[in-house]
Design goal:
433 residues, alpha/beta, five-stranded parallel sheet, 19 strands, binds flavin-adenine dinucleotide
Length: 433
């Protein structure tokens, strides 16, 4: 079959890779100039490696993406970086059962209670009954108000903003179960890895068009797409405009609805309840380290803080790949229509500066440059009984399939599950045809 894939994020790339393995001919259309989607990277001219616009790593049990890396011969680096929490103006390492037991901000009873609940969830293999339970109601009762309010409530509020009180225990379970103390990273960065997959696809005869915005798809007769080239994109041959046997859409559902006018109203209404948050990351390039204790990831457990997570990438990957610069992300999840989301980089730095000074009063002296990255759909909201809300692969349009971030469940979305989706949609199309 000749299959068009919309989007060169990790779902689109892996769908193309596996569909090709099954003997299909693939063409990918991507509106950005590079592959990677939400995990897209960029490279300053002084750097050897690329860096993601939004912090990214893998867990060592991310088997789908690690297998893909192995198959194409892409080297993966494994490290055990330090994860900490910021509570009442201080940083505490918080990345092992021992560190939790030694955490001085809670009584020993509260620590044991929290440890017990987390262990119970971690060793429970069954998630389905948990999706009926509201996490923000269950957890304070189970582990005690103090521990919940100090460590976990900020996580829910920071990650899901106005939707925090809707989140299901299945989502929290998945976060706990998946976490590994060691983390993995593709050599050269996620952009390098995505480019490597593109090369493999092209070598096998597949086509990948960048700067190509798909504005409409149709399934009337043969599935076809209409696209608009952005900037000075290479001209895609005329025959690429239509005449596919199938189309795989990897965009979030609301974007799929926009480009598919033939979709029936009741289908769109059924999935209109799906919600998502945007993400912003202010990335600082520093001459000196930001954290003085080598922390890679800091969860800011303080509702008054203007930043949710502070991630010093170069405490995970060696600074030598980035011209010895120290790279720091200041991340937030925000509704894309909020005032905070619309701020410019100077305004964001001004807002965050007093808080950053509390941790490192001298960081500004070593600031080389900074950039602000934003994506308007970054994190699907996972309320109770989410399994009933997920759109299926099959759409009402014949031979048009949907394979997207909102179908990742119960796991928290990630590039590993994007690759799993790519495998699953391949099997699905194979079985249907
Ligand atoms: C802040 C943040 C941190 C994250 N941290 C991690 C992490 O540590 N580890 C991890 O594994 N994952 C992480 N993720 C999640 C991960 O990035 C995503 O789950 C994954 O990249 C989703 O891939 P996808 O292909 O399904 O979707 P996307 O990456 O969204 O891909 C969709 C693609 O479609 C393109 N597109 C959209 N509209 C059109 C159109 N009309 N025409 C053509 N192309 C179009 C987009 O440009 C995009 O490239 C993080 C995400 C964010 C935002």
């Amino acid at each position: 079959m000749r299959i068009a894939i919309i989007g060169a994020g990790f779902t689109g790339l892996s769908a193309a890779y596996y569909l090709q393995k099954d003997g299909h001919s693939v063409t990918i259309f991507e509106k950005d100039p590079h592959p990677g989607g939400l995990a897209i990277g960029f490279r300053e001219k002084e750097w050897e490696w690329s860096l993601e616009k939004h912090y990214h790593h893998w867990f060592t049990n991310d088997k789908f993406i690690l297998r893909l890396a192995k198959e194409i011969g892409h080297k993966v680096i494994v490290r055990r970086p330090k994860t900490s929490v910021y509570v009442d103006g201080k940083i505490y390492q918080f990345d092992s059962p021992l560190k939790v037991l030694l955490f001085p901000k809670l009584s020993i009873i509260d620590r044991l209670r929290m440890g017990f609940v987390i262990s119970l969830l971690r060793y429970n293999p069954i998630w389905k009954p948990l999706e009926k339970i509201n996490a923000t109601k269950f957890l304070p009762k189970a582990m005690g108000q103090r521990g919940y309010k100090m460590i976990w409530e900020p996580l829910f509020k920071n990650k899901f903003g106005p939707y925090a009180s809707d989140i299901s225990l299945a989502w929290f379970w998945a976060r706990i179960v998946k976490r590994t103390p060691s983390l993995a990273y593709p050599q050269g960065g996620f952009l390098e890895f995505a480019n490597h997959i593109v090369k493999v696809i092209e070598k096998r005869g597949g086509k990948v068009y960048f700067n190509t915005d798909v504005v409409e798809l149709s399934s009337n007769g043969k599935p076809s797409i209409k696209f608009k080239k952005i900037g000075n994109a290479q001209k895609a041959p005329e025959l690429e405009i239509g005449n596919y046997d199938a189309i795989v859409v990897t965009l979030p559902s609301f974007l799929f609805f926009k480009i598919a006018p033939e979709l029936p109203q009741d289908y769109k209404q059924k999935f209109a309840k799906l919600r998502g948050l945007g993400a912003t990351n202010l990335m600082l390039r520093l001459r000196k380290p930001f954290f003085n204790d080598g922390t890679y990831w800091l969860n800011v457990c303080d509702e008054t803080s203007p930043v949710m997570a502070i991630v010093e990438h170069t405490n995970f990957m060696d600074k030598k790949y980035y011209n010895n610069e120290h790279l720091l992300y200041l991340g937030n999840y925000l509704p894309a229509d909020s005032k905070r989301f619309s701020l410019e980089k100077e305004e964001v730095l001004k807002l965050l500066d007093p808080f950053l000074q509390k941790i490192n009063p001298n960081y500004r002296k070593s600031l080389i440059d900074y950039a602000l990255f934003k994506v308007s759909f970054a994190q699907p909201v996972i309320p109770t009984n989410y399994s009933k809300m997920i759109p299926p692969f099959k759409t009402p349009l014949p031979n048009v399939y949907l394979s997207n971030i909102e179908q990742v469940y119960p796991w928290d979305r990630g590039t590993n599950y994007a690759v799993e989706l790519g495998e699953e949609i391949t099997d699905y199309i194979l079985n249907e045809n």
